[in-house]
Amino acid sequence: MKKHLVFILLLTIGNFVFAQDDSTTEEGPKDGWTKAGNASLLFSQAAFNAEWTGGGTNNYAANLNLSYVANYKSGDWSWDNRLLVDYGISKTKDQEFTRKTSDRFEINSILGKQIPESNWYYSYFLNFKTQMTPGYVYDVDTNGDEIRTETTKAFSPAYVQTGPGMLWKKSDNLFVNISPATAKFIFVNGDFTNVGNDQATIDAFNEAGGYFGVEANDTMRFEFGASLNAYAKVMLMDNISFENILNLYSNYLDNPQNIDVDYTANVVMTVNKWITANVAFQAIYDDNAVKAFQIREALGIGVTYGF
């Protein structure tokens, strides 16, 4: 885990240095609202007839991505808000069920008051993150038919982080927020934690780590720790943007050395006003969920719309 964390930190720091150099030519933000959004739909499909000798299975995949920013500035006050929505599915002919490939709904909000003649702000932040549809694990029954078991639901789990801190902000495309006093809440559906009143069952459930860290017969877990949220977006070329989003969290109350990591890299290559190629990479480490890195990568060409 430590090797992966060091790699992600080095990659992100490198991009932040590049972003800092690139942003020195940008003009400072003006007072009032600055709003921008981007929606893209990536789709892929393959089909083979019975006579195709090369092998293959009919399949399709689709991914919808939405990013919206609404930032406000008034004098030495700033309020930055970002919405991220990412949802993808895939289906092959041999599979009974359509499967999710991505599912993310996230809201980030940072309120800051600038320290005179500096890039530093006193800040207060709020982060909300969850998924939108149920998740499953898949298996086969004794007849060889595919079956699935629900392991998550919409808003289960859902994460809320909030707390005061210090914000370093060079521009809307480059900032780091540090909060040494972050409250974190994990909300889950009671269907996944209700194990009854047998003490042995309760103890076994809790010793196994609970459900995303939430203990037996509870629906919420409270943590208190430190967090770092960073964002950097640079233009690699006139038509290629590289976006980095990094979230780190350490829980003072339980194994503070086990740092939660959520890193996302998005590369968008614009062909024209409507067509783009997208590359997305996400790495997550949260030992309340699984004691290993979760990795997701997606590549596609599709339709995009900016607003």
Please characterize this protein's 3D structure.
- It is a single chain.
- This protein has 307 residues and is mainly β.
- It has helices spanning 2-23, 199-207; strands spanning 32-46, 59-74, 77-92, 99-114, 120-130, 135-140, 146-152, 158-171, 174-187, 220-237, 240-251, 260-270, 275-286, 290-306.
- Strands 1-2-3-4-5-8-9-10-11-12-13-14 form a twelve-stranded antiparallel beta barrel. A two-stranded antiparallel sheet has the order 6-7.
Topology pattern, helix = H, strand = E: HEEEEEEEEEHEEEEE
Mean of all residue-level pLDDT scores: 89
Taking the sheet with the most strands, its summary is:
12 strands, antiparallel, barrel
- Structural Rg: 22 Å
Q: What can be said about this structure in brief?
A:
This protein is mainly beta. Helix content is 10%, strand content 60%.
Question: What are the main properties of this structure?
Answer:
12-stranded antiparallel β-barrel; 307 residues; 10% helix; flat; 2 helices; single chain
Note the topology.
Blueprint: H1 2-23, E1 32-46, E2 59-74, E3 77-92, E4 99-114, E5 120-130, E6 135-140, E7 146-152, E8 158-171, E9 174-187, H2 199-207, E10 220-237, E11 240-251, E12 260-270, E13 275-286, E14 290-306
Antiparallel strand pairs: 1-2, 1-14, 2-3, 3-4, 4-5, 5-8, 6-7, 8-9, 9-10, 10-11, 11-12, 12-13, 13-14
